[in-house]
Design a protein that fits this description.
The chain has helices at 11-32, 38-54, 63-88, 94-97, 107-125, 129-139, 144-151, 156-177. It has 181 residues and is mostly helical.
Length: 181
Amino acid sequence: MKITTQTTDSADGTVVDGWFETERDRLWGFLRSRVSCDSDADDLFQKCYLRARHGRLQDPSGVNAWIFTIAQNLVRDDFRRKKSQRIAFFELSDRQKASVPDPSTSMEQAEQSVKRQVALRECLQNLSVDERSVVDRRSEGQSHHEIATAEGWPSANRSEKTLHRAKTKLSLCLASKDIFR
């Protein structure tokens, strides 16, 4: 991993640059052990460097812990971002729900689309009645409060928790089918 460092007049910049010059391999290894590929580790490494350069180091003797805390927070942010992208898959459009093939798609793409729809239906069948109901209602645009009222639940909190459980089950089920890559 090659990173160019700039020297600045500030003591923080000098400390951070010096740390990155001596500890870059250890930090990159830390990041790589927590993400799925080298390019993700490279991206997080660059972000970590930029945050450290633009951040305010309170105690120069704690630079190591400070930079690794930045790195760990970046890993968590990256995980949350990717998780929300996976969950966004479940927000299907009306066209996808209707299973209307696009005339511009190839036969191979159409077959893949059908396989994905079948897998999704199979995974939806594994959900409880409450979970399927919440998923259906949310896909229709109902709020958690509206769902709780319709289901006779005392609060929207139950709808939120049920949807979270359903999304987790669907994510695991679909990942096991290995056709969404």
